[in-house]
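Notes to self after the Tuesday call (sharing in case useful).
The group wants a holo model before anyone commits to mutagenesis around the pocket. I volunteered. Ligand is pyridoxal-5'-phosphate. Logging inputs and output together so the record is complete.
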Amino acid sequence: MHVEFYRHNLDAADIAEVTRVLQSVFLTTGPVTAAFEGKFAALTGLPHVVALNSCTGALHLALLALGIGPGDEVITTAMTFIATATAIMHTGATPVLVDADPVTAQIDPVKVAQALTSRTKAVMPVHLYGAMADMRALRAIADAHGLALVEDCAHCIEGERGGVRPGQLSDAACYSFYATKNLACGEGGALAARDPDIAAQVRTLSLHGMSKNAADRYHGKYKHWDMVASGWKYNLNDIHAALLVNQIDRLDALLARRQALAERYDRGLRGTPGLERPQAVGKTAQHLYTIWVDPDRRDEILHQLQERHVGVAVNYRAIHTLRYFRETFGYVPEDFPVANRIGQRTISLPLYPKLTEDELDYVVAQVREVVAG
Ligand SMILES: *Cc1c(COP(=O)(O)O)cnc(C)c1O
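Result:
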């Protein structure tokens, strides 16, 4: 048996949609991107959606639209992918990392409150593994101190916690459609917001700061565009949007499958000595199936699983322990002991709708043997 860490869910209809785009006039941002934005707004319940070429770009532009720049501090978690912090650095602001909750691995609101300074302008929570951070607690902190809130929803389109979904309590929710995400087109992202002004600013900034995009310019009598801001090049194109526009209709069914697989893992791995799991609060998008093992044996376990043809990944080592963050900000591992320890213990197992029960049962058997040592 050979179990891939990830396999995508694109089907014949998605591929046919790409072919249709390739046979049309428009390859760049056009009618298919617009159709996807409409469907994504309906899915998330957030009225204003801008399709972009990455979540990193969405995070960057969300902060810019909220007026964040050099001299400002933005608080985020040490237990995340590096893009959460690099997007803050793209604006010229300083990422201020805080520790994670030891049970959920989510950003700890108590630590956020302790990290506030007169320079703090925003908080950027991450909904890690598909479960949600405590948005009510973070909203209360943001209200008390006049801060912006931008959510990294790269793992979490479908989650809900205490009746709150991504984007409902924040200024902007930023999504990823990277190759391995729950909704995937290879490279892609989106910003969703309640405030039309934030979305409009992000749309302009995503296309060089131009006042009109190619589709606007295509129709009717020629009208000059203007440059109204200094922008970036983050727009999604219709070829990539074609892979998303029908896939989005299957997201509920795909999540149900992920859920069933995660429950089968839970049953199969229950009672394995030396194995723990992060706990999700509320409904999770089941993006990653994470196990926590003995930190002194993690790499050995990873390698043994690979030798047994089980695809594995590490999501993530705490970012303050990575060389760039250590050298640039002077962090040491003990600065965030919870995130550091999670990063030393964590292993992601294969979890995707095409994973079969036989494959999953094989993974469970290998994990039980290898972890037992
Ligand atoms: C994937 C990911 C990102 C970056 O998404 P891109 O679309 O690749 O820019 C950001 N944050 C987290 C937590 C991610 O997993």
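Two things stood out.
Residues 54-56, 80-81, 83-84, 126, 152, 154-155, 176, 178, 189 surround pyridoxal-5'-phosphate (CB under 6 Å).
The first helix runs from residue 12 to 22.
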